[in-house]
Amino acid sequence: MKILGIDSSGMVASVALIEDGITKAEYTVNNKKTHSQTLLPMLDEISAMLEDDMSTVDAIAVAAGPGSFTGLRIGSATVKGLAAAYDKPVIPVPTVEGLAYNAWGSDRLVCPMMDARRQQTYTGLYEFTGEGDTCVMNTVLDQCAVPVEDIVDKINELGRPVIFMGDGIPVFEEYIKNNCKVDHIFAPAHMNRQRAACIAALGEVYMKQGRIEAAEDHAPVYLRMSQAERERKEQGVADQGHDN
Amino acid sequence: MTAMNDILILAIESSCDETAASVVKNGREVLSNIISSQIDIHTLYGGVVPEIASRKHIERINRVVTAALEEAHVKKEDLTAIAVTYGPGLVGALLVGVSFAKAYAWALKKPLIGVHHIEGHICANYIENKELEPPFMCLVVSGGHSHLVKVVDYGEYEILGRTRDDAAGEAFDKVARAIGLGYPGGPKIDKVSCEGDPAAIEFPRAKIVDNEYDFSFSGLKSAVLNYLNSMEMKGEPIVREDVAASFQQAVVDVLVGHSMAALEEYGFKKFAIAGGVASNSHLRKAMEEECAERQIEFYRPSPIFCTDNAAMIGVAGYYEYIKGVRTDWTCNAVPNLKLGER
User: Fold this and answer.
1) Which of A13, A64, A194, B161 is the least buried, fewest Cβ under 10 Å from its Cβ?
2) Assigned domain for A238 exists
3) Which of B45, B58, B91 sits opposite A219 (nearest CB)?
4) Number of structural domains, chain A?
């Protein structure tokens, strides 16, 4: 199985190729330069280094949201272009699940936290169960956009040791340290941000479960409406209230 | 039918609220022109909502491209190059087309050509006028742009005038909203104006002191709003057909006046219009008459090539392609891209 993985959901731009259980190449950059300028040159670079034009991939996995709206779309549009050109399917990997997969095999509860702005975090809770090659990631709390207080309360309620990761940590670290009552640790540099190898590896698992889609059907999951839609909805609700 | 040595350009356009793709053969033959408009959605909000437009582009882009290839009976492997609008426009919307086109071209090992949206509008005139070649003068008027341009050669432009504030189409939208016609304003004002008196109300025709070819439409828009307010204050009825017709006449007078003055000054014998507002029936008629009087050849695209479309991007992309222009993989969306710059 040969899977190309792409993640541009946050500040990180990352591309990776995994083949038969090995990461053949991974290129990850955590910089302010726009993904539009970096992503394809990075893919071009690993393609040249591997002397592999990527046309023989089985599928293309993508961090499919949540994340930065624009970042998600750059990744999705890129993946949709590649998949259409190769006539290959897309594997949409929820961004938070991809982040959690960094901690594969951990005994702890895994809690990725992305900075979702507006005092919220894109987060979720995961655990790894089973032994050896049967170890699988299970969802304890599906990815969602919530205030940091909610997720920390939930963790306290579950009462299990936890590992945190993600670009939300620098933002919420203080709060977590002061309010998280269970044993908690923060993931180190090599596993605390989005990595395309995680997207590709988890993508392979999902592909085996049949969780793929056609390029034309793929779109990111934002977990949030656009501001205009939100305001219109609020307006609608207000109008309705007035009518009553 | 397509032959081996045909140059087949797949063009993609997503700069505003139309997701579009087209296959253009040898520069001027449009084999397909697929436009997926989002107008129904944006009408709910009274104008284009950038985030919603970007989301819709992502959902639709593959189907639009597939339809363009199918309708053209062209296999993606047989394409010569991929052209894409990379500016100006809404950055989030542009990025969808640009990111898709880059990946598609890269994977197919085809050259990528970034195209300027306004250049596309100008080139729309080549589609139905096979004999038209530069040099000529072109007026580009749309919801986002108002440019009076000297088309010196293919891909070579000299801007004589541009708007200082609102684009012509923007003024149409704002006035339409003020008189309760809704969005999009251009076609609605065009329609109701037919039943109004263009001389009913005297609205100003703005002149720019330091560049006689520049435009300004915000004063005109304000004059319309002031008129509506004062009528309301006085409790007098507003005849919106007359307001629409008089406003439109003011816009048409300015566009025609500037264009004719420039044609005379620079001695061009060919004149073209382009962009969404070029669909306006009153503007087309007025330009036609003025050009006929001066024995100037007048060109205007059919409305389907005036609106945002990808065929025009394919035409512009073709001329860039044969000039040797190639865009590299770092290509980014440039929301305020200037005409004639790369």
Assistant:
1) B161
2) no
3) B58
4) 2
